[in-house]
Amino acid sequence: MKILICGGAGFIGSHVAKAIRTAGHVPVVFDNMSAGHQWAVQWGDLVKGDLLNRTEIETALREHKIEAVVQLAGSINVGESMKDPGKYFRNNFSITVNLLEAMDAVGVNLLVFSSTAAVYGIPETSPIPEDAAKAPINPYGEAKYFVERLLDWYTKARGFRCLALRYFNAAGADPDAQIGEMHSPETHLIPLVIYGALGTRPPVKVFGTDYPTADGTAVRDYIHVSDLARAHALGVEYLSRGGQSTAVNLGSGEGISVMDVLKAVEKVSGKPVPHELFERRAGDPPHLVAKSDLARQVLGWKPERSDIETIVRDAWVWSEKALREGLYSE
Ligand SMILES: NC(=O)c1ccc[n+]([C@@H]2O[C@H](COP(=O)([O-])OP(=O)(O)OC[C@H]3O[C@@H](n4cnc5c(N)ncnc54)[C@H](O)[C@@H]3O)[C@@H](O)[C@H]2O)c1
């Protein structure tokens, strides 16, 4: 199949392009390069375009004879969304309205969408099942949840088949180190810890040491980006053989604390991780872990590289390469 990957020059999207190519399909990347990297586009054509512009997306769909779309494009910084909600509803929700209208106009109706654990807000139970209450606590999560609702309406009203993938914490890097994480600014724990150990960033800030968790630090579910990426290829195949619209969690099901991450980086690198302890940050849930058996049932997917040591090892090898080759940006 010819599959358009919106946001395919970014961290997760570039791994999705590789996984889609590996699964025997043809990826075409559509990205405005606001946060994407030219070096990350290695497995298909790059169309430089903006989802805010409906004509650009419609032209790409027609010219490349696209049969299905993966929508990863958007703004991703939760903290920024609290200061600038308009940006987050525009560049997550409105752009996806444009995309769906353009797809409808050209007769493409299969869509895999990057959703997030942030749709659950602060959940009452962990591990979190897909039918847990949706109560986002920031504009980023709310805009993603709006998109999920939009997909439901396009399913009912326009015959679309859509799969929302609710990622937990995407981490790691391509096992061949061809691509990896490079956000600017970086807000994700694992790269912050690794670059801290490599001496290119200040000591890591650990927020909260008195949570009701085994070591007092917050627990998250880290999922290897290559495992995530494979789920998108399986997701497109699921939809193309008639699979119905649904939403599934993508997590490892393992709870890993901030201190576990620091220890894993020290073990893999043999270097100490400089860090400082701070009070809890407002709005950070103590424990966020996915219940992820639905993805196994629906997609036949299971994580293969998502133990914390493999995630950290792949991320470490990539980060060293990024520094060596001048790809690193703060
Ligand atoms: N990284 C995570 O842990 C995580 C967790 C949950 C959900 N997600 C979601 O996954 C998706 C990908 O995340 P990522 O970490 O790869 O982010 P990223 O910033 O690396 O990639 C996003 C890409 O989208 C492009 N883009 C942004 N706005 C665009 C627009 N209007 N038109 C065209 N292209 C546009 C950017 O240039 C970038 O290449 C995002 O939607 C994010 O919300 C990520």
Number of helices: 10
Shape: globular
- The CATH superfamily of the domain at 2-171 and 223-250 is known as NAD(P)-binding Rossmann-like Domain
Residue ranges: pLDDT <50 for 5 or more in a row? none
State the total count of DSSP E strands.
14
Instruction: Give the terminus-to-terminus CA distance.
Output: 37 Å
| Fraction of helical residues | 25-40%
Major sheet attributes: 7 strands, parallel
CATH architecture of the domain at 2-171 and 223-250: 3-Layer(aba) Sandwich
Q: Write the CATH fold name of the domain at 2-171 and 223-250.
A: Rossmann fold
What order do the strands of the largest sheet run in, or round the barrel if closed? 3-2-1-4-5-6-11
Order of helices and strands: EHEEHEHHEHEEHEEEHEEHEEHH
Bound molecules: nicotinamide-adenine-dinucleotide
Written description of the protein model:
This protein has helices at residues 11-22, 54-63, 78-83, 85-106, 139-158, 189-197, 225-240, 258-269, 293-299, 308-324; strands at 2-6, 26-31, 45-48, 68-71, 110-116, 161-167, 169-171, 204-207, 219-220, 222-224, 246-250, 256-257, 275-278, 287-288. It is of the alpha/beta class and 330 residues long. It has a domain at 2-171 and 223-250: Rossmann fold. Helix 1 (11-22) crosses helix 7 (225-240). Nicotinamide-adenine-dinucleotide binds next to helix 1, helix 4, strand 5 and strand 7.
